[in-house]
Design goal:
- The chain has one domain: 2,3-Dihydroxybiphenyl 1,2-Dioxygenase, domain 1.
- It contains 5 helices and 18 strands.
- The strands form 3 sheets. An 8-stranded mixed sheet has the order 2-3-4-1-15-18-17-16, covered by helices on one side.
- The longest helix has 14 residues.
Length: 272
């Protein structure tokens, strides 16, 4: 299982398209009425927009901490960093996580974005407790030696992971691990957990760094309103059993299962 794409409620479509097309280098893959699908030239949808003319800013809510786009190589990440500096686009941060190197940005409506490249998997530090991750200074000098021209987001780019704000770590673990079936890979103290499927360092993370009593996103607030997770067809029966045992409501339509997470954000489980 892994996150395929995210859907954002947006207000200023012109500014958002300027960023996603001109800065990130995505392409519009589909557009109908107030709905847009953006992604790579190869046709992979990474981000969807639903435009809401009544949208307003959201502050201190549960929901999106950041979504993370996985670049195919360190070279691609270095070229992108050089490009951001050349166009003077502000960075929100940059870190070495021991399993990956990451650059952090905010889009025009303050959605958090991580752009990262993994270190080779044989360099990851594994133990009986999971996969070791940390936050350290990135080797920017080495990254900036990567030469090339950034024109479009790399065609092999994937939605690497999704990181959410939640109000309760135990409830989040019960939902994402107990019900959906992800496996814990590490904890970052008592206030953040990282989960994945198939031994990856993390596909879905959640934290309470913003507090434990935040409201969920309102009906006309900007931000994350849905995300899609792929699930192999061979595992759907057990997934449905876990959802029933946990008392989680869902709706099955064709090759999709629709449900809500603990933040009341919609999930589309795409059966593959």
């Amino acid at each position: 299982m892994h996150v395929k794409n995210v859907t954002l409620r947006v207000g200023n479509i012109e500014k958002m398209l300027d960023f996603y097309l001109d800065v990130l280098g995505m392409k519009i893959l589909d557009q109908a009425a107030n709905r847009y699908s953006l992604g790579t030239e190869s046709g992979r949808v990474l981000v969807k927009f639903i435009v809401d003319e009544e949208a307003e800013n959201a502050t201190r809510t549960t929901g999106l901490f950041h979504y993370a786009l996985l670049f195919p190589s360190r070279h691609d990440l270095g070229v992108f960093l050089n490009y951001l500096l050349a166009i003077d686009y502000p960075l929100a941060g940059a870190s070495d996580h021991d399993v990956s190197e990451a650059i952090y940005l905010l889009d025009p409506e303050s959605n958090g974005i991580e752009i990262y490249a993994d270190f080779p998997e044989n360099k990851w530090k594994r133990s009986k407790d999971g996969i070791y991750m940390t936050t350290a200074a990135i080797d920017h000098a080495s990254l900036l030696k990567e030469e090339g021209e950034y024109e479009n987001i790399p065609q092999e780019t994937l939605m690497g992971h999704l990181h959410l704000r939640v109000n309760n770590i135990d409830q989040a673990q019960a939902f994402f691990i107990g019900a959906l079936g992800f496996q814990k890979t590490s904890d970052y103290g008592p206030s953040a957990s990282f989960t994945s499927d198939g031994g990856y360092h993390h596909h879905l993370a959640f934290n309470t760094w913003g507090g434990s009593a935040n409201p969920h996103l309102g009906p006309h607030q900007l931000g994350l309103i849905e995300y899609a997770i792929s699930v192999p067809a061979s595992r759907v029966e057990k997934l449905i059993t876990r959802l029933n045992e946990a008392g989680i409501e869902y709706r099955k339509e064709g090759n999709n299962l629709y449900l809500k997470d603990i933040n009341n954000t919609s999930i589309n489980m795409v059966i593959i």
